[in-house]
Write a structure and sequence with these properties.
Helices cover about 30% and strands about 15% of the residues. It is built from 15 helices and 17 strands. The radius of gyration is 25 Å and the shape is elongated.
């Protein structure tokens, strides 16, 4: 079982079974706060008021497990135990099999040492008024001086029962993307846990002082913590497209984005009229509404392949590399000259319109308040040499959100303009959300 290769054992619950390939399960305890980031000697403990985690090293000379290996290990252990409803989690007979289970390179520095520290340590969790409970069965902990390979761990019966009641479903694809960044794994787990019982659109706001308790270090004060945590949230924001975030002086607000099908149903599309042009007082090439677009095509209509990572964006590409990829299916292939990018995909309050350039030099982007194409409410932006309003009346506050999105997605805008993006799946996969408020 690994992040890349889902297990075959299925959970008994129907919803769990259906989500087997895409979900990896963790315990709410490990999603509610950050685990140790760096190795240290002595007892490590973090308290959030209602809950706490304490990790005691195996001996006075030992260190506590930490970093990405600790986090991936605990997610994997919880996932395997939850699916099998078993206290015993087998991890393989050697280092290579453990690495495969965690979805990392077998040559990862510190893999063996971290795993030995984990097997020797005592993990104590308390929360929900249940009192303290040990995560691992004391009989299975590694003893001082025991350096032989141990193929598995054994959870305590009490923790397994708690896991069944407090399991949090994480997106396996997102965990894989964030696996190299421990702080991002912590933040993603917390966001997912916070939203797991909320309705679509319901906002959950967490104040900065609470976030500092959950994720800050002993050396950080509020002034140091906020920019560091915002940087982590940007990483999560890039990897997870189903959530919206906003940052303010009060704290961090998150919500689940509107489902694709609801977005389409709520905002219908309007046919484009042929050969009409918007006025352009600045003399920049006009944003044409093409006759080939009888109905506005939305990227929301096509879901991206769940198992694929975003395509890398190299700084320089050869002419051969920039050729359109002719592998898209007939259903997925883009045949229109314009497409709309809905709000849930961009993270903006507006809808972005991309179009083919057909040799024009000035690259333009359209912005409308809704999915319906309304010429009188269309704002046209030029993207070179900087993002400028060519026509329309986008308020300054909205422009300050749209402009960073345009800069973040310049490669996508350019490639669609030049006809290099030929499939909806590729376009959806490559679009990145806008930086959240106060992240600029």
């Amino acid at each position: 079982m690994s992040l890349d290769h889902p297990p075959h054992a299925m959970a008994s619950n129907t919803a769990e079974t259906q989500a087997s390939d895409s979900v990896i399960w963790s315990h709410a305890a490990f999603c509610s706060m950050a685990l140790p980031m760096r190795a240290s000697r002595g007892v490590w403990q973090r308290e959030t008021g209602a809950a706490s985690i304490r990790i005691e090293p195996g001996s006075i000379d030992d260190i506590v497990p930490s970093g990405r290996i600790l986090r991936l290990s605990m997610i994997h252990i919880c996932d395997a135990a939850f699916r099998a409803r078993s206290q015993v989690v087998e991890l393989g007979k050697d280092r290579a099999l453990l690495a495969a289970a965690l979805g990392i390179d077998p040559k990862t520095h510190g893999l063996t040492d971290q795993w030995q520290h984990l097997q020797a340590a005592r993990f104590i969790w308390s929360g929900d008024g249940t009192g303290e409970m040990s995560v691992f069965d004391a009989r299975s902990r590694r003893r001082p001086g025991d350096l032989g390979w141990r193929p598995g761990v054994r959870l305590s019966a009490k923790f397994l029962a708690s896991l069944v009641d407090h399991a949090v479903a994480l997106d396996r694809r997102v965990v894989r993307k964030l696996s190299a960044t421990p702080a991002a794994l912590d933040a993603y787990g917390w966001i997912t846990m916070s939203l797991r019982h909320t309705a679509v659109g319901q906002i959950v706001t967490t104040p900065w002082d609470e976030l500092l308790r959950r994720f800050g270090t002993a050396s950080q004060d509020a002034a140091d913590f906020r920019p560091a945590f915002e940087a982590v949230l940007r990483i999560v924001f890039e990897a997870e497209s189903s959530i919206d975030m906003a940052v303010s002086d009060e704290g961090v607000s998150v919500r689940r984005a509107e489902p694709v099908q609801n977005s389409i149903a709520a905002e219908g599309s309007m046919p484009m009229e042929p050969n009409e042009h918007l006025s352009n007082a600045d003399g920049v090439a006009q944003y044409e509404r093409q006759a080939v677009l009888p109905t506005a095509t939305s990227v929301a209509a096509v879901a991206p392949p769940a198992a694929q990572d975003p395509a890398p964006v190299p700084s320089e590409r050869s002419s051969a590399e920039r050729q359109p990829v002719a592998t898209s299916t007939a259903v997925d292939r883009i045949t229109q000259d314009s497409v709309s990018l809905p709000r849930h995909l961009t993270g903006l309050a507006q809808v972005i319109w991309l179009r083919r350039g057909h040799g024009e030099e000035k690259i333009l982007v359209g912005v409308t308040p809704g999915q319906r194409f309304q010429p009188d409410r269309l704002t046209v932006l030029a993207v070179e040499p900087m993002v400028l309003q060519v026509s329309g009346g986008l308020p300054e506050k909205d422009f300050e959100c749209v402009a960073p999105w345009v800069m973040t997605n310049r490669d996508v805008i350019d490639d669609f303009w030049e006809g290099l993006i030929t499939s909806m799946a590729e376009l959806t996969r490559r679009v990145r959300k806008a930086p959240g408020p106060a992240w600029r």
